[in-house]
Amino acid sequence: MPEVAPRRAPVLAAVAVPAVRAGLWSPVLAAMLVGYAMVGLPAVIGGPSSPNLVVILLRLAALCAGLGVGFAFDDPARPTTATAPAPAWLPLAARLTALAVASAAWWCATLATGMAAAGDAAAALPGGDLTLEAAAVFVGAAAVASVVWRRAARGVVGLVAAPAFLVVVVVVTLLPDRIQLLVGLDSDTAWDAAHDRWLVALVLGAATVLVAATWRPRPLRRSVPASGHR
Fold first, then answer.
1. Distance between CA atoms of 127 and 135, rounded to whole angstroms?
2. What would the pLDDT profile of 116-138 be if each residue is shown by its tens digit?
3. How confident is the model at residue 205 (pLDDT cuts 50, 70, 90)?
4. Are the CB atoms for 141 and 165 separated by under 8 Å?
5. What is the mean pLDDT of the chain?
6. What is the rounded CA–CA span in Å between residue 197 and residue 181?
7. Of 12, 36, 125, 218, which is least packed with CB atoms within 10 Å of its CB?
8. Of 201, 148, 192, which Cα lies nearest the Cα of 172?
């Protein structure tokens, strides 16, 4: 039994590495680049910005980057690997890990640029709360993509997940004030309450990704009628 784990490691690597390479990463990186430009260009061209404007730009940057998340789920080889001995969720988990690392690095750079753009008012920016928002956006986009991935037999996810994510964003902007997520810095009470809801959204999104990636319905058992005795 102790030999099982060492034997599994090469198998996991043999599945995970090609899975990450097979992902459609160019749209993901392009979305991140455009999102970063939304924060970086105003900082270079316009000079110091107000904290409220920086918050808006950071939110737009996160939403833009979120549009590219679904393309990391694309798997052109899925029809041929559906019968592979490795678990179906393993390639997806490998892509999600790579996506999480890239997203974290991107957000750190984008947030730092936003702080620099705010100049002396950077202390007024709640970096932790904005990071929570960005994490919820990325996880929400991943949740939408994972649901699409579950139904995409041919492995095409991004082209469906991106517009579906946009629909979710529109719905969020139309929420009534009492459950609104996108609030300004002006009201501390509304800001704190909104970020409690952001945390709930993050947890629900993560749960959706987990269930969509791993849950498999059990096949229904057919009842066999008992044979009568003559």
1. 12
2. 888 888 888 899 999 999 999 99
3. very high
4. yes
5. 82
6. 7
7. 218
8. 201
